Amino acid sequence: MTRFQSRTLFVALLIAAILALLLLNQSGRLEGLKSVLLTPLSALQRGVAGATAGLVDTVRGSPDDAALRQENADLKAQVAQLQKRIVTLQEGQADLNLLSGLLNYARSSPDNRYAAANVIGRDSSPFLSFIIIDLGTDSGVARDQPVVTDNGLVGVVVAVTCCSARVRLITDPDSAVNARLQQSRDEGVAVGRFGGGLDLQYLSQQAQVKTGDVVLTSGLGGGYPEGIVIGTVSAVQRQSFDVLQTTSLTPGVDFNRLEIVLVITNFKPIDLSPVLAPAPTPAVTTP
Amino acid sequence: MAYLVGLPLLAFAAVLEASVLSQFRLFGGTVDLVLLLVLNWTIVGEWRGGAIWALMGGLCLDLLSGGPFGANALGLVLVAYGASLSEGRFWNSHVLLPLASVLLGTVVYHLVYLSALALSGHTVSWELSLSQVTLPTALLNTLLMLPVYQFVRWLHAVLYPAAVRI
Predict the structure, then answer these.
(1) pLDDT at A215 over 70
(2) Do A130 and B65 count as a contact with CB atoms less than 8 A apart?
(3) Domains: count for chain A
(4) Residues of B in contact with A26 (CB under 8 A)
């Protein structure tokens, strides 16, 4: 066997193994194994996310960076200790602001039970819009629970391990949320758009919609609670020849700066499949 | 030995990709650190190791992704195989060859991944994906190719020191 042949055979075996994994995963038989393997990776991810949080803020440029840099230049080494303290306090203040916003939001809906979770990662693929949070089944998080912030709807839990969960953002192209215009009460579906945007689809031509209108979850379908902010209308594209109209939305949540989110842990999604299943055909009786 | 070092290195690279690098985007593109490590390990002459690294790194990425499990591994193994078809010395003959390989490797990797997404029922916007994610990612990967190449060459020299004739 030539070197080329042995190489090709080896890679073919690897590909066959991967295809087997793909098929097993599609049938849902790998969930247990994935959960076990994901646990140490999640722990590593939590450590990396914690260690690099300051670095990310620094590189991205927070509003206070320029002032901090100026101060650093003026006071040099003598102020280094103070600077470190300032950064720590600012991080604490930022966390406090976030948490008090979330607390106010939680108080506004006392019927819901919330679990606050840190965002520890994003999907490793740039083609998908998911985040990883640091709470899992141990904290009462389960599949299909909605995830929110004080600014609005974030998404829904789609996979859980003991101590982490994957959340599909509403901007993922596979996400669809039944929505309602707050003012006109017209209903549509907020669908994720590739690149992080949102569209409000299936709005009737008669719907009165204008830029700036607030869009909320409608609660239809039972997948999300009613009345959570999804976003605001940013552009209306009404074509007279279309049966339905589509509008662009600006999400209420800034998905690039998500740090802490709330999972609604007592929400029970309603399974409508038995209701939506076709009615059984009546048995034909012969006289 | 390469596998013992490779697994934690690739797991760490996958976590870095998901936690840190994913926050620094050029349009929709981010750096594919695992792809760079796999490609470079293959290029320095470890074709079998490159394929195994591709499998390990790909599965780590798949665990951290909501996409079909195995899709990243499939794309990376195919890229490693393609890169292994030329021998190690070929890549040293011109500095542009590793750079060209990463451009091509990124496109192949993303095409395989997008195909797996589409086949498993995800919504895929091919035109936007290729223009807003793949092209910027290829550019970012090309910028980082040489530093990663140097690191991998150093790692290879540490793990497999050249025999000295006394």
Answers:
(1) yes
(2) yes
(3) 1
(4) 68, 120
Nearest-CA distance from A198 to chain B in Å?
Answer: 14
Q: In this structure, is residue A278 part of a structural domain?
A: no
Q: Residue written as tokens 């393609």?
A: B82
Domain contains A55: no
A239: domain CATH number? 2.40.10.350
**Beta carbons within 8 Å of B66's beta carbon, 6+ residues apart:** A123, A125, A128, A130, A158, A159, A166, A168
Tell me the per-residue pLDDT of B48-106, one tens digit each, with 9 for 90 and over: 889 999 999 999 999 999 899 999 999 999 999 998 887 666 666 677 788 888 999 99
CA-based radius of gyration for chain A: 24
| pLDDT at site B36 | 96
pTM: 0.78
Look up the domain containing A220 and give its range: 176-252
Choose, out of A120, A125, A134, the residue to mutate when testing the contact with B (most B CBs < 10 Å).
A125
Q: Which fold has domain B2-159?
A: Arp2/3 complex 21 kDa subunit ARPC3 (1.10.1760)
Q: Would you say residue A237 has pLDDT above 90?
A: no
Q: Is A127 in CB contact (< 8 Å) with chain B?
A: yes
A213, part of any domain: yes
Which residue among B20, B47, B137 sits closest to A56, beta carbon to beta carbon? B20
Nearest CB to B66; choose among A21, A41, A166? A166
Provide the shortest C-alpha distance from residue A57 to chain B (in Å).
Answer: 10
Alpha-carbon separation of residue A213 from A196, A198, B25, B147 (angstroms): 20, 14, 30, 49
pLDDT at residue A248 above 70?
Answer: yes
- Domain contains A170: no
Give the distance from CA A251 to its chain's centroid: 12
How far is A222 from B41, CA to CA, in rounded Å?
50
